[in-house]
Amino acid sequence: MSITKLENNIFVLETKNTHYVMGIDKNGINRHIYWGSKISSNDYELDTNGDENSNHSAMDSYRQEITFFGGTVYRECAVKAEFSDKCRELEIAYKDYKISENTLCVTMADKHYPLEIDLCYEVYDDSDIIKRWITVRNIGGDEIIFDKLLSAEFSFPSEKPYKFRNTNGAWGAEFIECESTVEGGYSVWESHKGASNHNASPYFIAYQNADENGGDVYFGSLAYSGNFKVSAGRDLFGVTRVMLGMNDFDFSHTLRANEQFDTPAVYCGYTQGFGEMSRQMNRFAINHILPKSFNNKVLPVLYNSWEATEFHVSASQQLELARIAADIGVELFVMDDGWFGQRKDDHAGLGDWYVNPDKFPNGLNELIDGINELGMDFGIWFEPEMVNPDSDLYREHPDWAYHYDTRSAKELRNQLVLNMTKPEVQEYVFGFMDELVSNHNIKYIKWDMNRPFSEIGAENLENRKMYSYLHTKAVYDICDRLKAKHTDLQIEACASGGGRAELGALSHFDQVWTSDNTDAIDRMTIQSGFSMLRPIKAMRAWVTDINWYNKPTSLDFRFNIAMQGSLGIGGELRKYSDEDKKICKRNIELYKRIRDLVQLGDLYRVYNSDKDEFLMNMYVSEDKSRAVAFIAARGTRFFKKKFNMRFAGLDEDKTYRFSLDGKEHTKSGAYLMKLGIPYRIIGNNFNKIIEIEEV
Ligand code: DGJ
């Protein structure tokens, strides 16, 4: 992979399969030239057409890497600032560039004011993903205030409209995919909630004539867990542009003398088909995004007590669950909400992170030792950023919660958000987590966050509109500090389910809680949406007793779905029959055999439960010597579904062996992928897991 500067101030970023090309024109303006599969001649040129009339400015028609507010730019811009003399115009031109190893930095500077802006790009030897961000630098003495500071802008080659995929979700319905075509005007996917929310995803997927296996697919994912904005627009000339970064709707950043600021990164790529997009991002996240301590290790099978016991935890009852969990093969036992302060329900206790003496009269070690003796690790739940007004913490430090003295702070789930931008709050939060982990054998933290922000008065900040960034950064920093000190500690990000589950969170947390909706039928849709641009191993998936539809799915069916992520168990195991426990044991054993394929392999989405009536996903090892296929259908209509079960992702030239319904098959990869095995799906709760091995 390389970065080349051509003679005419054109920069070519080369990845394994793609070129990304930008250049500087004779006026010093940054211009986008090309993004797509490699063009071997490499003789890129700038578009010199600059037609302008009284109402169409040339500037407005350019494809740019970053568009600055000012002059005759009337369309959406990516950066907007005000100088100390109140001038709100940016006049930015090329100054210099620097290529160091795999990074390109093109420095632009204002013609009059002491502002420099670096357009930064990084390429990787093992991937087609490109990292983009910008750095703004104040090289003068006066403050510069930014009203808008996005991370990246993209323009696509075709003038025909692009379709976009994002998610339109909610609590319990995260990652539900939605599609739209942007023909004109703008489409926006964003968060105003302070964190990255359940509703939309901080990414774009723009495509033409694409499906899982082919067609032009452009994508970019913002690594940021605060308020974000993705906007896509198409102009009269047919140019489709996308911008993404920190949301400007309630934003402002002050850059003081000699300060610089890096925007959150965007990871972007071009592939043929959605399948390759997801595989590229999955592998990239494993290699370059997830925290290094567990990125390429398989995650343990966990048990979580929430759905079984909710707030009513005690040492004896958790140990009772733990004995069964250990017996069926669980490796990590996580006690959820309810163990601390005066926590009986969600009205009290958040903020008071001492072990509740009534529930644990002998402290936590009695439970932890018991769990360790059963051969499992122990994990525990926190909700560090929150406080219940009914807590000692709030009574002592009411000013630690975001508030305005003249407004009443609205409670959601009876709680308020702590102002994590305050250093003393950060120290408090780090302190209680560090203390508990230091004094107990705790290997796992579930870091929950159960409400969005409101009344965000942060009197400690000079520029309060930076709260979302600073709060987010504080969360990341505490996570990093904990991990640096406790190197074998895994941390899971939870925000009422999947409310903070993007590449920003995943740069600091090892995994996320995907959704409080653990119904296996709904999970098929939720998990499919998750798999688009998020790493599979980070997706915690539990087998529980939830059945939203009052038509219970079988235990095997629930395992089939939950095994397609990092498996967890969340049911009330004390009510499981011996037969149920046998089913759990058998499935957990199977999962342990194939989890490296699911968590670290390549996913091929063959059939989609919503579109095709049944689901078929394959996970294939990187060397294509092993694979596992999951098939599941809640119940097919019209009595049956016949199809040729064609596998995907195998090596055509290898021979594979597998057993299906008691029959052994040995076939070439080509046979299995082109012709397949005739198969029939019949009945309710249909589920099948096929382990495939190279002969
Ligand atoms: C919301 C989470 O999503 C649940 O899994 C559980 O941890 C509860 N919070 C506990 O209050």
Describe this entry's structure for a reader.
By secondary structure, the chain is α+β, with helices and mostly antiparallel strands. Helices cover 20% and strands 33% of the residues. The protein is built from 13 helices and 36 strands. The structure holds (2R,3S,4R,5S)-2-(hydroxymethyl)piperidine-3,4,5-triol. The site of (2R,3S,4R,5S)-2-(hydroxymethyl)piperidine-3,4,5-triol has 11 residues, from loops.
Provide the descriptors you would attach to this structure in a database record.
single chain; 695 residues; alpha+beta; 10-stranded antiparallel β-sheet; 8-stranded parallel barrel; 13 helices; 36 strands; binds (2R,3S,4R,5S)-2-(hydroxymethyl)piperidine-3,4,5-triol
Structural class: alpha+beta
The residue-averaged pLDDT reads: 96
Ligand kinds: (2R,3S,4R,5S)-2-(hydroxymethyl)piperidine-3,4,5-triol
Report, as a whole number of angstroms, the end-to-end distance: 35 Å
Topology (SSEs and partners):
Blueprint: E1 2-6, E2 10-14, E3 18-24, E4 30-37, H1 58-61, E5 79-82, E6 92-100, E7 103-110, E8 115-122, E9 130-138, E10 144-155, E11 162-167, E12 177-182, E13 185-190, E14 203-208, E15 216-222, E16 228-234, E17 240-246, E18 253-255, E19 260-262, E20 266-272, H2 274-289, E21 302-304, H3 306-309, H4 315-328, E22 332-335, H5 365-373, E23 377-382, E24 386-387, H6 392-396, E25 416-417, H7 423-439, E26 444-447, H8 467-485, E27 490-493, E28 511-513, H9 520-530, E29 539-543, H10 555-562, E30 566-569, H11 578-600, E31 602-607, H12 609-612, E32 615-620, E33 626-645, E34 655-660, E35 663-668, H13 669-674, E36 677-694
Parallel strand pairs: 21-22, 21-30, 22-23, 23-26, 26-27, 27-28, 28-29, 29-30
Antiparallel strand pairs: 1-2, 2-3, 3-4, 5-10, 6-7, 7-8, 8-9, 9-19, 9-20, 10-17, 10-18, 11-12, 11-14, 13-16, 14-15, 15-20, 16-17, 24-25, 31-32, 32-33, 33-36, 34-35, 34-36
The chain binds (2R,3S,4R,5S)-2-(hydroxymethyl)piperidine-3,4,5-triol (DGJ).
